[in-house]
User: Fold these one by one.
Assistant:
Number 1:
Amino acid sequence: MADYKLNTDLIAQLIVSLLPHKPVLNALGFLVSGCISLCMIVYKFHVILKIPSLSKIWMSIKGSFNMFACLLLPNLYSNFSVILLGISGGNVATGIYSSGHKFVSLCDGFTKVLSRTFFPFLARRIDKHQLYVKISGIISIVMSLGLFLCADLLVKIFYTPEFKDAALVIRIMSIAPFFLFLMNTYGTNYLVLQKKEAILRNIILCCSMGGFILAWITILNFSYIGVAITITSVWGVRGFLTYYYANK
């Protein structure tokens, strides 16, 4: 089933990446991949879908609160940073940042697909975690080097000359794939599997609060560069803290 999930997630990420300025088509990409996944689950694996009761939904949320917090808290600095940039810098600054961030987002999407693909395998064979570390680590380094070295070329190919400043955003955030590697490899695919979600939640909570404060300082002074610095810095601190506590 992991192979089907990988294929459909890649379809969605590819559509989103190739059509960055068409929100309807972006949504369509996720809708198509979701429908394909649902059909495979129902017809190929003969899974029967049922509507859960409210009590079961509440029990599920209560039992998974730490993971719920881990998914929700990053919005405190990521989405807020973009909103603050739009208010303080206007559409031009937001457009430049978004143009550069698209390529980092593509790498982020791929690392998440890789993480989700390995998760069920590692849940059964945590002794193979080092194999996943090596594979994910090599891919993240290649992506980081690719973003840094090809920033100007990517902007030249995909955007008009007005967006040339997006290359700087790409270079600042080029280290992000490595930080994402630390976050996914030692967070979701290690601490969670070791039943240490509370540690991961506390790391994300502290980093999110720090990112929220940092956003006010950097964005108001450095515009779209401030957003790139904020998000990259938070990911870096979060990645190394996750690595530290996973190996403690």
Number 2:
Amino acid sequence: MLESHAARRLARILLVVFSVLLIVGGLLAYIGWYRFFREEPQPGWVTATPEMRFKYGSIGAEWDAGIPYWIFYVIPRVFPDKFPGPGGYASLGAAWEQGQELPIGFTKKVIGFPRVANTCAVCHTASYRASPDEVPTFVEAGPAHTLNVVAFFRLLVDVAKDPRFNADVLMREIGLVADLDWIDRLAYRFLIIPITRKRLLERERQFAWIYRKDFPDWGRGRDDAMNLTKYFMINAPMDDTFGPTDMPSVWNLQKYKPEQGMFLNLAGDSHDAYSVIIDSALGLLGAAPHNKQAFLDEVKWMQEYLSRKAPPKYPFPIDQAKAQA
């Protein structure tokens, strides 16, 4: 009788302990998912117009190639000496609209915490000014002729190699501009900052060819798109290929008629605009899409948008007499 009572009591204790552990485990799992993996839609203004969606809409690159927003935010403040001049990311030639917190082609999306990644607009947004002091006019789907892509890649590796890229320095600077709660502060200090540094340092190996002394710099407005996909996404072994080209305009893609023998890319290696867009987008993701269908839907939308997007009209008065002469 006593043994039976003791057994029942032990069973109740074990059940209570198991229930408590289950609740605590479930709570920790939820906190982990919420703080690191929950995906929130971007704010409505991002998709309010096709132009805004092209410039700031996510294509899913935040999952694998994203940089934590607050680290991205304070990099120019902590490492001003790593930039070619004043102005932070703008000194790299990034197109930046007044009133926007990020340059064109840079997306912000919450996946557990806010992350920054790129979209096709980073390489395909042109700008011009009628006078030196005028606010630039930005032209979607035009060539990003001012952007120094290779300098941006090197910057991210260089700051990660700097001893200042540590939790104490970065958290002190983040604390000046953001009021993170205690869970986020712990997450940034012990997980997000160390993991980000590790991932950025890994890029030095993936981008080894951009450090080769026998290769010239790409220059502003140029991009080695094929090697980016080859080395950064599929981790192919480095060879002697070198192919930076001028960033092209990508408007009015409907003009390309493959049935008439029209081809795309500098080498004419494709006749399908969809394949060119998807290859470029995969290069930005740096890995297989986290959500394949959402990625394909975004690529399809981009193809339709760029097919209909008309080139801009010449913005200045035309002397018709001279034009007809």
